[in-house]
Amino acid sequence: MLKNFFVLAGRHLWQTRLYACINISGLSVGTACVILAALYVADEHSFDTFHSNNPHLYRVTSTVIQDGNIVKSGGTGQVQGPAFKAQVPEVLQYARLMGGDIYGDVKSGSKAFKLQLLFADDTFFNVFSFKMLYGNAANALKNVNSVVITERTALRFFNRTDVTGQTLEMIADPSAIRIGKPLVIAGVIQDPPANSSIRFDILFPFRFMQVSFDDTSWLNAYLGTFVVLHPKANPDLVVRKFNRIHQINSREQFLAHKKQTGSSPQIVYGLQKISDIHLNPQEISGQSREGGVINGSKAIYSYLFLGIALFILLMASINFINITIANSLKRAKEVGIRKASGSSRIQILMQLMGESAILCIIAFVCAIGIAYLTIPVFNQLAGKQIVFKEILRTNLLIWIFFIFLINNLLSGVYPAYLLSGVSPVQVLYQREKLGGKNLVGKTLVVFQFSIAISLGIATMVFYGQMEFIKTKNLGYNPEQILKINIPALMADHGIASKFRNELHDTPNIRQISFAGEFGIRETKIQDRNIPGYYRSIDPDYLPMMEVKLKLGRNFSPSFPSDQKYAVIVNEAFVKAADLKNAVGTLIKTDSHSGNEDFTITGVVNDFHFGSFRERIQPMVMPASGQYGGDAIWVKIDGKKQKEAISSLERTFKKLLPGAVFTYTFLNEENTKHYEQELRWQKIIGYATALSIFICSIGLFGLANLSVTQRTRETGIRIVLGASVSDIVILFSKSFVKMIVTAIFIASPIAYLLMNQWLAGFAYRIDITAWIFFLSGGTAVAIAFFTVGLQGAKAAGISPAKLLRVD
């Protein structure tokens, strides 16, 4: 019985090998996409689950409500953690983290590197599960000058990992200078795993940072505070206690803040499971990530990946169903004979389902091979470090097997059910046309092309928006401008002059400026507080960037008071402050900036210093000579880029001995705002290509079957005078009608989805009609070419041969 099944199945697959190859190709590609998507989803949901305290490990979050604005973040100040631990019994342990986007220059002997820093309480290893390779985790951070490094950092400095007791030196760091001792390596840990939101190269005691920055404010939220709760603790009750403690301790600070600024923000604390942080990082737009957490993502990306992969697999399954139904006439005669010979419907159904299962199994094996071979490309595309052996995880295997089973049933059940139900008499006497008008098959083709056309429209909208961002006038010229970071204590106001003096005879260096980024701060004008982005600049900054002045003047050496008392603002600031005569207006900075008085001397045209997702925010630009800075900005000759960078590096090492020379091009910094969008542009592009491939091979199979089944009709039409074009149109028109229907279905759906995506941009393109015409026209052209090729091939055969076909 089993042998007979395999003989019949093998014979049928060989006789229909073209269609079997089409089905296997589509199913294997679709299944490979699902496997890769499953690996992506599993990786996204595996972040931070390796910590042993994970079920009870939370991050304290803050929600600030002020003037109708609600800002949520995963940050607190320095005082919350110790206070919560002391007054809430359910808090078993806590750890404060300051890091993420914080880097510093660290030196050992002749080697110096810019490392990612993390400052943490000495309870760090009690709260988090990072494996200590060398040293004692219990006291590794007890001393103020003790540090723990990763094995990668150890190898960079010492070419080995057993380096406890070795010393390091922080370059131009205020805390290190005040301590006056070298850093002693007290431990070496295994590199944080790829699925860790907490990443660093070197770990400092929290007290090291407090030597130069000790904050007692209850109103701040910039670092991460993590707590381990008792297993029986009620998180909601704990949160209520946190807020009560905050109200008691912050009362005087709130009153002082209200007296000074006239506003009184409301702060509400919450708890977030550490395993939820990756998919909901709660970062504040426009501010650096200093809460120790990076690698943030969004849950929507997982759903999109999986949804696209499942749609591609569904399209392949539609090919399987349609080709099987279209090929049913020949198969129907075989089924009729077997029924007349005594076979039951169940036996025939099992035979047909078994043949489908064989194809699906072959496709599944091929899919595993495709996924294995493409995982490096997929990692690069998705920004992941997924190892293929992760597929062996039990829950992932079960999930993939479930998808395989469902796909097998979807692909095989309907065609098998249809074929097994034929009437032997009707079929053998050719009185039954299986499937009738085949409305199901046509509906599936329309659905299939609707997906492909929607993806095509999405690809063009993605491309159009990214091109719009690349080509839109930013209000300044970022070409050939690079930023060189300067250690804080070395970044004095004369550093730019020193660079200019050293490089004044270097022809490939065009302009040099000293500037600094200080994030969002409040500015007081009379009784109003205007939040704005602070960037310190010198007189050369605006000319170098080609930013145009609208009113007033630039900073000038002719006005020495500019260095202490002048600021330049943008148009957005003038509008937010509702200033009629901005130039000459007095403003006052907030407490972070010393509550100093400044006079507006100039107003510049708005320029894009952030992402296109947000409207241009108010900007305040004091003089870097007084306000300080953190970087040298240099405009170089693009034709001699390498020579210019070499000259800058030599000068940097001469003027700032021991500091690490690093630079980024301004264009590259701008592109970082859109890393996710650029990644998804590629993903949607690949998905569109795969969907077109699957649709095309499906159409090819259906067209080939259609031509084969209408061979004699084709011969008769040719004898009666039909031309090649008539035959091509004959076979193409039904398919083109289905594609046109798909265009009308896909266009409004794609428009709504992509318009919603574009709504996330303050500056965006309009979705114009040509996008739909191009996507739809491409689909029609592919269909006409694929089907027409088969029709033309049939029309080129001698009518005598066509009429002899049974």
Structural description of this entry:
This protein is of the alpha+beta class and 806 residues long. It contains 26 helices and 21 strands. It has a 6-stranded mixed beta barrel. A 6-stranded mixed β-barrel has the order 13-14-19-16-18-17.
What are the main properties of this structure?
806 residues; alpha+beta; six-stranded mixed beta barrel; six-stranded mixed β-barrel; 26 helices; globular
Summarize this entry quickly.
The protein has 26 helices and 21 strands.
Q: How big is the Rg?
A: 34 Å
**Whole-number mean pLDDT:** 84
Largest sheet: 6 strands, mixed, barrel
Task: Characterize the overall form.
Answer: globular
Q: Low-confidence spans: pLDDT under 50, at least 5 residues?
A: none
Give the percentage of residues in beta strands. Answer: 15-25%
Helix count, DSSP H or I runs of 4 or more residues? 26
Strand arrangement, largest sheet?
3-4-9-6-8-7
The helical percent reads 40-55%
What class would the helix/strand composition place it in?
A: alpha+beta
Straight-line distance between termini: 32 Å
Number of strands: 21
Helices and strands in order:
Layout: H1 2-15, H2 17-44, E1 57-66, E2 69-73, H3 80-87, E3 91-108, E4 111-120, H4 124-127, E5 132-135, E6 146-150, H5 151-158, E7 167-170, H6 174-179, E8 183-189, E9 202-205, H7 206-210, E10 224-229, H8 235-261, E11 266-273, H9 299-326, H10 328-340, H11 345-382, H12 394-420, H13 424-428, H14 439-471, E12 481-485, H15 495-503, E13 509-525, E14 528-536, H16 541-545, E15 549-552, H17 562-565, E16 566-570, H18 571-577, E17 586-589, E18 597-604, E19 619-622, H19 624-627, E20 631-636, H20 641-655, E21 663-665, H21 666-672, H22 675-709, H23 711-719, H24 724-758, H25 769-795, H26 799-804
Parallel strand pairs: 4-9, 6-8, 14-19, 16-18
Antiparallel strand pairs: 1-2, 1-10, 1-11, 3-4, 3-7, 3-10, 5-8, 6-9, 7-8, 12-20, 12-21, 13-14, 13-17, 13-20, 15-18, 16-19, 17-18
Helix pairs in contact: 1-11, 2-9, 2-11, 2-12, 2-22, 3-8, 9-12, 9-14, 9-22, 11-12, 14-22, 14-24, 14-25, 15-20, 22-25, 24-25
